[in-house]
């Protein structure tokens, strides 16, 4: 395959401690200098920084692992995205934690309406195929040691993962101003209040699941019959973020997910104009809100993230 057209990230930026924001189809970052980074698993391309100090790295999951004959990034649908390259690349780039933004459909539009912004505390795979670095890079079992990059046996989204729990709480506080800034444009999900938004029923993580992200394999959307089944597993549905979350945990990288609910899942729309019109009615507002989410994350992460220092 043709070498990527983007210049390699300079060594001083590779080793520099940083945080990362992963976005998707609903997140656009324009006009920034783009770089590439080669890992033992492949190239991570079209990566940029959101801040002048180059402490906050941005990766578009759909435009960072595939490129055309000219070396320019091309769109990779959910089933083609190389999540291993993305997360391993971030690990080798000395990233301390990841904040991800995902576009989702609501499995329960009465309680998680289109136009809401939510922060899942758990996830489920529809097809729980192995998602792991095992066999690709040196991995430990319950704890990494020596040259091992991570571990494969862990309890996902656990309250005992203090780094994740603390970063999740920090993200909730950093994003709080977005709700006030876009009053009237953001729908509130059941269990959301101004003091805890965008978390649901508080930011604490316990045994009971408050809001779960369900991942399908894509790239097609789900059938009505499938959606009826998936609604028993969770609250929102997407095609990418559970894979990222799993691999980040293997590499001991805190991963906090914030989701924009931009459509009702197939067969569930309550909008009088139907699901397409419902999506169009909220598209502009969600784009504005998502832009503000990225700005707030950039400011907070650039200042040192949960630790508040570099």
Structure description:
The chain has 310 residues and is an alpha/beta fold. It contains 6 helices and 10 strands, in the order H-E-E-E-E-H-E-E-E-H-E-H-E-H-E-H. The chain has helices at residues 11-15, 83-92, 162-181, 224-230, 241-250, 275-302; strands at residues 18-23, 35-39, 42-49, 56-60, 95-106, 117-118, 122-125, 212-215, 236-238, 255-264. Strands 1, 2, 3, 4, 5, 6, 7, 8, 9 and 10 form a 10-stranded mixed sheet that branches. A hairpin with a 2-residue loop joins strand 2 (35-39) and strand 3. Helix 2 crosses helix 5 (241-250) and helix 3 packs across helix 6. The radius of gyration is 19 Å and the shape is globular.
What gyration radius follows from the Cα positions, in whole Å?
19 Å
Question: Structural class given helices, strands, pairing?
Answer: alpha/beta
Strand content range: 15-25%
Mean pLDDT: 94
Helical proportion?
Answer: 25-40%
Q: What's the total number of strands? A: 10
Strand and helix order: HEEEEHEEEHEHEHEH
**Cα separation of the termini:** 38 Å
Query: What form results from the Cα inertia axes?
Result: globular
Q: Which consecutive residue ranges, at least 5 long each, have pLDDT under 50? A: none
Number of helices: 6
Described by strand count, sense and barrel closure, the largest sheet is: 10 strands, mixed
């Amino acid at each position: 395959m043709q070498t990527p057209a983007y210049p390699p990230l300079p060594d001083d930026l590779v080793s520099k401690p940083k945080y990362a924001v992963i976005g998707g189809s609903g997140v656009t970052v324009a006009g920034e200098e783009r770089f590439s980074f080669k890992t033992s698993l492949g190239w991570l391309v079209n990566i940029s920084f959101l801040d002048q100090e180059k402490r906050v790295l941005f990766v578009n999951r759909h435009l960072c692992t595939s490129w055309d004959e000219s070396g320019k990034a091309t769109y990779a649908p959910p089933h083609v995205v190389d999540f291993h390259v993305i997360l391993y690349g971030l690990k080798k780039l000395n990233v301390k934690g990841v904040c991800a933004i995902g576009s989702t459909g609501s499995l329960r539009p009465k309680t998680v309406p289109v136009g809401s912004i939510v922060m899942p505390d758990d996830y489920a795979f529809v097809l729980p195929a192995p998602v792991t670095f095992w066999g690709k890079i040196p991995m430990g079992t319950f704890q990494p040691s020596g040259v091992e990059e991570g571990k494969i046996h862990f309890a996902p989204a656990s309250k005992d993962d203090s780094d994740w729990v603390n970063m999740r709480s920090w993200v909730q506080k950093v994003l709080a101003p977005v709700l006030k800034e876009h009053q009237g444009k953001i729908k509130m999900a059941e269990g959301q209040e101004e003091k805890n938004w965008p978390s649901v029923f508080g930011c604490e993580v316990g045994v009971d699941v408050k809001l779960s992200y369900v991942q399908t394999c894509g790239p097609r959307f789900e059938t009505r019959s499938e959606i009826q089944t998936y609604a028993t597993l969770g609250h929102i549905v997407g095609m990418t973020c559970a894979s990222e979350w799993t691999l980040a945990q293997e590499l001991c990288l805190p991963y906090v997910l914030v989701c924009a609910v931009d459509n009702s899942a197939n067969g569930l729309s309550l909008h009088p104009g139907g699901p397409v019109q419902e999506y169009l009615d909220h598209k502009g507002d969600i784009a504005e809100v998502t832009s503000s989410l990225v700005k707030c994350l950039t400011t907070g992460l650039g200042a040192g993230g949960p630790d508040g220092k570099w």
